[in-house]
Amino acid sequence: MRRTALLASAVLLAGLLPWATARAADDPPTVPVDRFEGEVPFASQPAEGIFTWGGDADDPPALSLAARPDAPEGAKVLAGSYDISGYGGFTHDFAADQPAHDWSAHQGIRFWWDGRNNGRKVAFEIKDGGANGEASELWTTSFTDDFTGWKRIEIPFTDFVYRTDYQPVGGIDHVLGLTGMWGYAVTLPAGAKGDFAMDDVELYGRADQSLRATVSTDAAVHPVTEGGTASLKVTLATTGSAPVGEPVTVHYETGGGTADPGTDYTPVSGTLTFPAGTASGTTRTIEVATRKDRTAEAAETIPVKLTVTGAKAPAETPQVVIDAHGLPYLDTRLPIKKRVADLLGRMSLAEKTGQMTQAERGAVGTGGDIATYALGSLLSGGGSTPTPNTPEAWAEMIDGFQLRAQATRFQIPLIYGVDAVHGHNNLAGATVMPHNIGIGATRDPALAERTGAVTAAEVRATGIPWDFAPCVCVTRDERWGRSYESYGEDPALVDSMETVIQGLQGRANGKDLADDDKVLATAKHFLGDGGTAYGSSTTGTYTIDQGVTTLTREELERTHLEPYRTAVERGVGTVMPSYSSLDITGDGKGAVKMHARGDMINGVLKDDLGFDGFVISDWNAIDQLPGDYATQVRTSVDAGVDMMMVPYTYKEFSGTLADEVKSGRVTGKRIDDAVSRILTKKFELGLFEHPYADTSGASSIGSAAHRAVARQAAAESQVLLKNSGGVLPLNKTQKVYVAGSNADDLGNQTGGWTLTWQGSSGPGPQGTTILQGMREAGGDVTYSKDASAPTTGYDVGVVVVGETPYAEGVGDVGNGHSLSLSATDKATVDKVCAAMKCAVLIVSGRPQLIADQLSGIDALVASWLPGTEGEGVADVLYGKRPFTGQLPVTWPRSESQLPINVGDASYDPQYPYGWGLTTLTRPLPGGTTTLHALTLAAQAAEHTGADRTGRALVTKARLLVQQKIGDHITAAVSKPFADADHLLLTGRYGKAVEKLAEAYRAA
């Protein structure tokens, strides 16, 4: 049956329904969109169909066309059940090989919903313009399920707003045209199990001018210095920019705010008229004059009420705000401690709990709730970006949010946070660094600091003062989906890379935080997240992430706590607890979620280590704690969490926390401590004086200078594991056959946390692939991704294989991932390496099991996730830079060995921790005699504190030992070799050379 025939018959049926609403005589007939009788299949684009989606494997709802005797229309309804932890819902897309639908004749869209009276919001969006349903603009609204049984939900098109948290194509024209519609989608509530039923989606009513004409103001908030005059611009706009056909009037009147008319300002009222024929974009101005006195005051508001006839009115009443003035906390001459104490003493409980609340940018829409709930912070989750995703749009968005905070009594600025974990990775065009695992492979603390400085400069230039980085976890099991977020398996290595904190923040005393190229850093995830046991996770389908770390207190302090001690000494501004649980042997507590471990957060972090910044929770982490919501809030706050990341439940959190304080279950002292810590960092960042984006550094985003740092980091991160016959470096005169899934895939090369949370294969960010880098290096290169092109006539092959992107527990081994190369990758390696001498590059976030193919591979390189600068990889392949990287983690022979780490009693890996061949220089001649001399020299360097000399001596010994070992890596060799690198990182240079000499004798 053709769609047009179906719609026509459905329209006739609609008139016979007992629930049909009478329509005005001049209204067009209703037009069914979905009857759920089976006329629309469960299918995806390009076919017409209904399909589900979600943030994780278990988030999509289960749908069915269920027969219901009480169906409002027909015999069946769309029914479903859901249990969503992140996000999930369903979509009806119209067929992409048919013309888009024209809804412009109608007032709105309506449907029947079977209410559960749970008080939860259900998001409903429509798809406007673009090529098809998955490449259209999304316009959204919501309704509240606060009823029981069937209810018809009617939504005028004027209620839809442009979706700001996600747009599949980055926006088209930001105008709801309604002439090219591609369907609708429903986002179901997250966080609790539920079920629903829906029926009879249809278009209703007649469109009027208010659908085509809109009155808006230039801003919702207009701050003005006391005694100044605020100018509000009122603009008339129409769809398609056509002149209005009917007059539009706007009556305005001041009054109703906290400012006193006649005392604080001169009241105004009047009417603005836009006659028929007025051009779209025409602007009128309303001026509000304020009055000056000698009294120090908090900010005061003057609402300007607008009554619009003939067009859609602004979504909210604009306000003039007389700035706070004369109060001690605003005095920059006072010490920050005194400013904090003064401000804290003036704040209400609601204002304090608001400061402890962080919401997601997409949840607050245009930002009205920022002032309503006195929110202290916003964040962008992975992939939550403005449209378009440009530096200018980021700065404009954040300035808009900061403007909202100016409507609060004390105009406390927001602190905006983002996960810039390897560069400003949410921003298109930013410089994307290697992931931390690759930075750990560089063994270059100065370079780590430079990568942090580049990241900070690019982040701050978009108006963001806070970075949820670095991750100072110690990864102990490569099956963990967050392995690449760690600098390595040795706490001494992680310690050495924490120079990145100075790159991000500047000096440890916080004096540089207000600079336009520095951001507040976050040490995460406290404590023991890298030590979770495989199979211990209870989060969805995760196998290890967010699981349980079980160990003795001494093991905890030696392995996982040490990097936090270093971070605190380096002045890190914030710390984020882990989702995982900690089970300390013998303490009698059992496995307790870290967000509930007051003994660790209050006791160890704040009291023992002396951390004076603030603790920010992870995303919705308190929802994983036992008990009802009030118990979860109380437990986490009492444990020492100062600010709660509650992306979509910020209202519930701040209100619940206030109730807990009023009841006496949470003390006012605890609240004041948390808010003082938060305010201190806001003052140190200079946000009270400069809340808006300083974009003077925006021209450096993605600049040649910044990319040069990333290129160097990519080069230094490459670890040469094997190099039989000196295959590497390549010569530009050689004919090189390049193949493999990751040779020319920037998305795979950059990994997770790149533009989106999980990252994605394909073009991805702006940058250079490894293949492009090789071509730009001047190599004679032929490329065949799957090695299907003839392989004869080449001097050498380069096969680039490895993983596809993932993040967090989604990447856990056993959750759809493994440590083995794909069958396609293996076949490509086998084909190329059988035909010619070959070098295999493994682009991955963790070691891949390669033992069964290793004998056929001449050269093997651990490339990790090198970021956007593929030229850096080419630099070492062609010898422009030497290979100098070392393994930051142990490379296992088999998965059965896991977990395997430096220091283990039983240690027989494929390649030991610290292994890394070089093309820099020839090893020193001699054997045990040379090593003995190096030992004596290293002991002397250690004794005199000559660290640079000591490190150089150990490196010389390591290269000598590696030359003798060659491909004959045994347990007897591996253990002392790996131990030597740990000793080097802890400054015991003499002992390190002694261990290397032991490995030499065992080889």
UniProtKB/TrEMBL annotation:
<dbReference type="InterPro" id="IPR002772">
    <property type="entry name" value="Glyco_hydro_3_C"/>
</dbReference>
<dbReference type="Pfam" id="PF01915">
    <property type="entry name" value="Glyco_hydro_3_C"/>
</dbReference>
<dbReference type="InterPro" id="IPR036881">
    <property type="entry name" value="Glyco_hydro_3_C_sf"/>
</dbReference>
<dbReference type="InterPro" id="IPR017853">
    <property type="entry name" value="GH"/>
</dbReference>
<dbReference type="InterPro" id="IPR036962">
    <property type="entry name" value="Glyco_hydro_3_N_sf"/>
</dbReference>
<dbReference type="InterPro" id="IPR019800">
    <property type="entry name" value="Glyco_hydro_3_AS"/>
</dbReference>
<keyword id="KW-0732">Signal</keyword>
<dbReference type="Pfam" id="PF03425">
    <property type="entry name" value="CBM_11"/>
</dbReference>
<dbReference type="InterPro" id="IPR001764">
    <property type="entry name" value="Glyco_hydro_3_N"/>
</dbReference>
<dbReference type="Pfam" id="PF03160">
    <property type="entry name" value="Calx-beta"/>
</dbReference>
<comment type="similarity">
    <text>Belongs to the glycosyl hydrolase 3 family.</text>
</comment>
<protein>
    <recommendedName>
        <fullName>beta-glucosidase</fullName>
        <ecNumber>3.2.1.21</ecNumber>
    </recommendedName>
</protein>
<dbReference type="GO" id="GO:0016787">
    <property type="term" value="F:hydrolase activity"/>
</dbReference>
<keyword id="KW-0677">Repeat</keyword>
<keyword id="KW-0326">Glycosidase</keyword>
<keyword id="KW-0378">Hydrolase</keyword>
<feature type="domain" description="Calx-beta">
    <location>
        <begin position="202"/>
        <end position="307"/>
    </location>
</feature>
<dbReference type="InterPro" id="IPR005087">
    <property type="entry name" value="CBM11"/>
</dbReference>
<dbReference type="Pfam" id="PF00933">
    <property type="entry name" value="Glyco_hydro_3"/>
</dbReference>
<dbReference type="InterPro" id="IPR008979">
    <property type="entry name" value="Galactose-bd-like_sf"/>
</dbReference>
<dbReference type="InterPro" id="IPR038081">
    <property type="entry name" value="CalX-like_sf"/>
</dbReference>
<keyword id="KW-0106">Calcium</keyword>
<dbReference type="InterPro" id="IPR003644">
    <property type="entry name" value="Calx_beta"/>
</dbReference>
<feature type="signal peptide">
    <location>
        <begin position="1"/>
        <end position="24"/>
    </location>
</feature>
<dbReference type="InterPro" id="IPR051915">
    <property type="entry name" value="Cellulose_Degrad_GH3"/>
</dbReference>
